[in-house]
Specification:
It is a single chain. Helix 5 links the parallel strand 4 and strand 5. This protein has a domain of 234 residues: Type I PLP-dependent aspartate aminotransferase-like (Major domain) (Aspartate Aminotransferase, domain 2), CATH 3.40.640. Helix content is 32%, strand content 12%. A seven-stranded mixed beta sheet has the order 1-9-8-5-4-2-3, sandwiched between helices. The longest helix is centred in the middle third of the chain and has 31 residues. Helix 2 runs antiparallel to helix 9 and helix 9 crosses helix 13. It is built from 13 helices and twelve strands. The protein is globular and about 75 Å long. Bound molecules: pyridoxal-5'-phosphate. Pyridoxal-5'-phosphate binds next to helix 4.
Length: 429
């Protein structure tokens, strides 16, 4: 492909030829990769009628725990339930507070309400977009029980200072690793650093098996509390601690968190192939960004090379966008122009939980005040201006194509689309 020629042609949005041309491979963006091995694994469960059993789920759990490097893993019907199990596991309860980032999927935080706990949102680091260790301590109160860390879009949060703060204030750390299966933080697997981690395995996730989730921990009490809460069918051999065993037979949470074995069967196959698929995605995204190394206004959302930290499978990858380097071109305009080139770009951020009415107004359990304040003497609600970095992210972040295969020529065309728009940004002003 003739990069120099493509990037100097007129912009497609102004009537020029597109940078992304010709037929694209179906494989480039397709996910999950499902082969006959997945299909047979699922069919066997169906033919055995063992969808509601736990034998295959237990196999998946031991394989996942071995890969993750934790003592325990526990399968769930979805990631939301696994995060609720983790919150209950660490003892989050009536009147407690959870410190969490605001721009994340709601299931990193909202379940706290159903435990009678509340949520206080902290700001994020402008580079990692994960909870900022420098903004955690100002939110700690005598009621704070735990910190929720989200490895956002697969970027590993800065766990060393977060763990240090937690230990100093006697707080528990929950890692939401739904975006980051296989991401490394300074050479260590995320999901095995905090007190407990939980993750979604739904179809869009990097490790994708359908509606499913997984909780991982080294802590026997957290593990058994999670079993006691939502896995009554596992109480027989899952509970050993006397204070939990006393209630065996009924789930303390009144919820059923069992994983469907068609999902755990597929998850076993997906996990087996995951390291090599993750490595291919990493090569593809590294290739894309290296082609843009000298492109003005863009840099990768990715830890520095040689830091020991990685991006796992680069879940829904994004880049940092600096409009001032492009004459003030707003990100929406840039996206429009790249898409006109055939670029397939979106904004790709969750909305801000700290400003949502569910967190600020809803009286969900009829306490006569917002549920967020139901058991608190102070007003925990946060208004515009509370989290300056979080609130300005949408202007500074851009989605990039989520390549699942390392196809050099096709990736180069997409990179050319970004470069072409960036170097001709003045024509869009
Ligand atoms: C960060 C994060 N946490 C939690 C979840 C919830 O997982 P699930 O959809 O499997 O319930 C998701 C995704 O859906 C997520 O992206």
């Amino acid at each position: 492909m003739d990069w120099d020629n493509i990037v100097t042609q007129p912009l497609a949005i102004l009537g020029g030829p597109k940078a992304v041309r010709g037929e694209l491979s179906d494989e480039l963006f397709h996910w999950p990769i499902v082969t006959e091995e997945d299909e047979w694994a699922v069919v066997e469960v169906l033919r055995a009628g063992s969808m509601s059993g736990t034998d295959i789920t237990r196999q998946f759990e031991s394989e996942y725990a071995a890969w993750q490097g934790t003592r325990y893993a526990l399968g769930y019907c979805n990631g939301t339930a696994s995060l609720l199990g983790a919150m209950y596991g660490v003892g989050l309860g009536r009147g407690d507070e959870l410190i969490a980032p605001s721009r994340t999927y709601w299931a990193s935080a909202l379940q706290a309400f159903s435990l009678g706990a509340s949520v206080v949102f902290a700001d994020v680091d402008p580079e990692s977009l994960c909870i900022d260790p420098n903004d955690i301590e100002r939110h700690i109160s005598p009621r704070t029980k735990a910190i929720m860390v989200v490895h956002y879009h697969a970027y590993p949060a800065d766990m060393d200072p977060i763990m240090d703060i937690a230990r100093r204030h006697n707080l528990r750390v929950i890692e939401d690793m739904s975006h980051a299966h296989g991401t490394l933080y300074k050479g260590r697997m995320v999901g095995a650093i905090g007190d407990v981690s939980a993750a979604s395995l739904m179809s869009q996730k990097s490790l994708a098996a359908g509606e499913g989730g997984i909780l991982c921990t080294d802590d026997q009490r957290i593990y058994e509390r999670a079993i006691a809460f939502g896995h009554y069918e596992r109480h027989g051999d899952g509970l050993t601690l006397p204070d939990l065993k006393a209630f065996a037979g009924l789930p303390l949470g009144g919820v059923k968190h069992r994983m469907n074995q068609t999902v755990s069967a597929m998850a076993r196959v997906q996990l087996k192939h995951y390291p090599e698929r993750l490595a291919e995605i990493d090569r593809a995204l590294t290739r894309f960004w290296s082609l843009l190394a000298r492109t003005p206004g863009l840099h990768p959302h990715c830890p520095p090379k040689n830091s020991g930290s990685t991006m796992g499978a680069w879940y829904m990858p994004i880049g940092h966008y600096a409009s001032q380097a492009l004459g003030g071109l707003p990100v929406e305009k840039f996206i429009e122009a790249v898409n006109a080139e055939g670029g397939r770009v979106g904004l790709g951020l969750n909305f801000q939980l700290h400003l949502h009415p569910v967190f600020n107004q809803a009286d969900i359990y009829r306490d006569g005040k917002p549920t967020r304040n139901a058991f608190s003497e102070r007003d925990l609600r946060q208004d515009i201006g509370a989290l300056p970095v979080t609130e300005t992210l949408a202007e500074r972040v851009i989605g990039i194509p989520y390549f699942r295969r390392d196809l050099p020529d096709e990736i180069a065309m997409f990179a050319a689309a970004f470069h072409k728009v960036a170097v001709q940004a003045d024509k869009l002003l």
